[in-house]
Amino acid sequence: MPVDEDKYPVESDRRRFVKGVVGGASLAGIATAGAAAVNSTTSSSGGGGGSVTFRAIENTDGPAPRGMPQIPIELEEIPGEDDAYIKGRWPEVSEVEEQGKTIKVAREDIAGETYSSEWFQYCGVQTYPGVYPDATEENSDLTNYFRYNGNSKFTWQNEEVSGGQKMKLSHFSDYETWGNGIGTAGIGKPASGSWRSEGLEPSETMAIEVIRSSRIEEAAQDNEWLAQTTDSGVMAHLNKCTHFCCVPAFKGQAGAESFGAADAVYCQCHQSVYDPFNIISTNFVALPRPARD
Ligand code: FES
Fold first, then answer.
1. Residue 31 pLDDT > 50
2. Which of the chain's termini has less CB crowding within 10 Å, N or C?
């Protein structure tokens, strides 16, 4: 896949990271297909790729080929507190026969649609420990809580919470007024973090973004899918640009205003734009998870 180096930001760490992921993902797609075929009789964890219909925050501009996958969320009440943890819901794990092999899959029906781990299998994420269907059973450190990352693009996050802390609903209580000088205030409050990635290397971290917005709250009132996959106006998505795998942000880059994306999720690498308030059904070809021993 050709990479236009001129379009990458000059900051060298990001540039190396992006190039590494792109190369790795491209090669892994070829290599792991072979590995899965060879090792399928000795492992039940690999596989799971192919054409997948998924829910995405819509891609509205730029070179990205499709939207980024939504992560259905759930709130877990905190005993003794009038508050709740925000968690990403993981699909139910089961064993199925596919092409003569028994494999584990994470798939479940939500509002008549199939939610599966395959939604997240692109950009190298298909190799991350957290994307394996039974990851949290095999690695008790991994959980479905959303946790903040350190050094966020959001000042509020850097000042009020710390990296590794679980996201709580109360942290977003000012969502109807919050603003940071980028775009319109009061349309949604974002945070960046990780999911199913505790204790793993940064290169294995499933980056996520959470937004709490009255627009989501209103849309969920007459939309069964949103009613079951968002709560109290909170929605989430896997934060990997479908173009070349950068990490975008909602109101995280002042430069977004130049591209009409001040009120959208904007990827600074090549100016792709996503609308977090338009969650659509679309499809792509998911990469297979490499087989493991
Ligand atoms: S990585 Fe190219 S637009 Fe996001």
1. no
2. C
Atom of ligand 1 nearest to the CA of 18: 1
**Whether residue 28 has pLDDT greater than 70:** no
Query: CA 65 → CA 81, 171, 209, distances in Å?
Result: 43, 33, 19
Q: Is the CB of 63 under 6 A from ligand 1?
A: yes
Pick the residue whose CA is nearest to atom 3 on ligand 1: 270
The pLDDT of residue 97: 85
Residue entry with tokens 């992560």: 71
267 lines ligand 1 (CB under 6 A): yes
Q: 244 CA to middle of ligand 1, Å?
A: 5
As a residue count, the chain comes to 293
Q: Express each pLDDT in 255-281 by its tens digit.
A: 999 999 999 999 999 999 999 999 999
269 lines ligand 1 (CB under 6 A): yes
Domain ranges (residues) in the chain: 3-286
Which residues, at least 6 apart from 10, have a Cβ–Cβ distance to it below 8 Å? none
